[in-house]
Write a structure and sequence with these properties.
five-stranded parallel β-sheet; 3 domains; alpha/beta; binds flavin-adenine dinucleotide
């Protein structure tokens, strides 16, 4: 079998490696000049390169870890259990939280005990969520996450202090417009399944350097023909059950099978070009996108109280002390990445105003920032960072076989159960390869 994988993000890389491992002759066609897809950095005139978005994954992301192992890639931070700094705006003393090596949900006892402003009895409320999820998160897709948490008797203070910061970052949607099924999945897998599940892993900067060279080496070693700067225009079924792929300036090539590891709308367009998309793919292409914005601040001294800091009920959301993690992009300066999920309000704000607003907020939130000087700032925006997991969206995510015969769908937007994450992308790539091999 000769197969083409369209798209060189994590889904495409995984599908190509899995197919090649099964003896398939594989060509991977990627429209850009690098592998890694949305896990990427961009040039910055002052700092060299900055990531378009801070990436984090958890101990429960086992398939991603397996792929990174195959690529020989390590994160810059690997925790054994969840450890986090939490800053409550208006209260200068940061809290250092650490999960315990106890069976779930008791591993969260010290975390809940030290978390600022949680209502009394929070462990009991969390245990109630754990009990409700024992049978799995199914059947909740039409409900908003906020309604689901309220129906489980979660106090508003617990929702805004604890659930919201985790879920908005993981699902990239506000709780009142996020499918409860996805939120419930995240709570179950990421927080309540074991003490290791929520342990943070933070990739090194820059993301392109982190993924692209190792992925190229691994694919080449597996015999995959990697073709960069190769945009695919259409995929159509032809005589002899062959698939005809047009790419580049007018080239057409025949394959026995294809994995479309591109965003939903692109996959729909590739098949539609020859009039062969499917209702399932059309429905997925109609799911809106949700933006993520990052503000990179370079200062003359450190100001964040931890490597990873969560600021509940603040526009700052999550802050990463990149210099403490691994990078020294701009000599003599410290690099803080402020990661804002579900950033509808930020994505259209002019760069100068957004940097100034965020820097001012940092100075109000972190006392050492008031004494620091801002050396350089950079805003990165990904308007199409993830699909928007609105209520009802789980049912609209297609599986790998929901295209046309010989074509498998992959991508973090497909029906993996996971939010649009690196783990979801890797799982979708393996599922697509399995589908074609079967
Ligand atoms: C700012 C930001 C922050 C994020 N943070 C996190 C995080 O903290 N943790 C986490 O797990 N996930 C995070 N994600 C999500 C994660 O990056 C994605 O879910 C994952 O990388 C998607 O991988 P993919 O392979 O499915 O798709 P993509 O990465 O989108 O790859 C698709 C590839 O297809 C290529 N392509 C498209 N059309 C064509 C064509 N016609 N021909 C050839 N090639 C084509 C594209 O160039 C691209 O390389 C974040 C995303 C962003 C944008």
């Amino acid at each position: 079998m000769r197969a083409v994988v369209v798209g060189g993000g994590l889904a495409g890389i995984t599908a190509a490696l899995d197919l090649a491992a099964a003896g398939v002759q594989v060509a991977l066609l990627e429209r850009s000049g690098q592998l890694g897809g949305l896990c990427r950095s961009v040039p910055d005139p002052v700092a060299g390169r900055v990531d378009t978005g801070q990436h984090v994954y958890l101990g429960c992301c086992t398939e991603l870890e397996a792929l990174l192992g195959r690529l020989g890639v390590e994160p810059a931070l690997r925790q054994e259990r969840l450890e986090l700094t939490v800053v409550d705006p208006g209260h200068p003393r940061p809290r250092q939280l650490s999960a315990a090596p106890l069976p779930a949900p008791f591993h969260l006892l010290p975390v809940l005990g030290a978390w600022p402003r949680l209502p009394r009895g929070s462990l009991l409320h969390v245990a109630r969520v754990a009990a409700a999820l024992r049978e799995g998160p199914g059947g909740l897709d039409d409900l908003p996450a906020l309604g689901w948490l309220r129906a489980l008797g979660q106090p508003e203070q617990l929702i805004s202090q604890l659930w919201e910061p985790f879920l908005v970052a993981a699902c990239n949607a506000p709780l009142d417009r996020c499918s409860a099924e996805l939120a419930a999945f995240v709570v179950r897998e990421g927080l309540l399944s074991s003490s290791r599940a929520g342990a943070l892993r933070v990739p090194g900067t820059d993301l392109t350097q982190w993924l692209d060279p190792p992925a190229r080496r691994a694919l080449q070693a597996a015999g995959v023909e990697v073709r960069l700067d190769s945009r695919v225009h259409s995929v159509s079924c032809g005589p002899g059950s062959k698939l005809y792929v047009t790419h580049g300036p007018g080239a057409e090539e025949a394959f026995d099978a294809a994995v479309l590891a591109v965003p939903a709308r692109s996959a729909h367009r590739l098949l539609l070009a020859e009039g062969r998309s499917t209702p399932a793919l059309e429905a997925a292409a109609g799911i809106p996108d949700s933006p993520i914005v990052n503000v990179h601040l370079f200062t003359d001294r450190p100001f964040l109280p931890g490597a990873v800091t969560l600021i509940p009920r603040s526009r700052l959301q999550w802050a990463f002390d990149r210099s403490r993690l691994d990078d020294q992009l701009l000599e003599g300066s410290w690099h803080a990445a402020i990661s804002i999920s579900a950033a509808e309000a930020e994505v259209g704000v002019p760069e100068g105003r957004l940097s100034a607003d965020i820097w001012q907020l940092c100075q109000e939130t972190f006392p050492p920032a008031a004494r620091a000087r801002l050396v350089h700032s950079r805003v990165t925006r990904e308007a199409h960072a993830t699909f928007w997991p609105e209520p009802g969206s789980a049912a609209r995510r297609p599986g790998p076989s929901d295209a046309v015969p010989g074509v498998a769908l992959a991508g973090s937007w497909t029906r993996t159960g996971w939010p649009a994450t690196m783990e979801g992308a890797v799982r979708s790539g393996s599922a697509a390869a399995r589908h074609l091999l079967a």
